[in-house]
Amino acid sequence: MSEKTVSLEQKINIAAYYISQRNFPYDKLCWMLSERQLFVENNKKYAPEDFVRKRATDVYFSSTPYDILCWLIAEIDILLGKDAIEKRTKLILKR
Hints:
Elements: H1 3-21, H2 26-41, H3 49-61, H4 66-80, H5 82-93
Helix pairs in contact: 1-4, 2-3, 2-4, 2-5, 4-5
C-alpha cells in the first residue's frame, strides 16, 4: 500500500471514531449513510426525503454493525469533502 492510501485509511478511521463517539442512535446513522449514498449516486444532488427514508429502512433492516455504519459514513465524508454533506445532515438531526 502506498503512503497516500494508508493516510486516507487512517483519516477515515479517525473520522469514524469521532462519529461513533457522538453516540448517534442506530436509526440516525442509517439515515445519515443513506443520505450520503444517494448524494453520491445522484451526482451530488440531494435525493427527496422519501428516497432517503426507503434507503434508510433497507440499511436499518440489513443489521449492519454500528461501527461499520460509522466507517462508511466517514469514508463518504472524507472522499467527498465533509462541508456539503454536513450542512444537510445538521438539518436532518434537528428533526
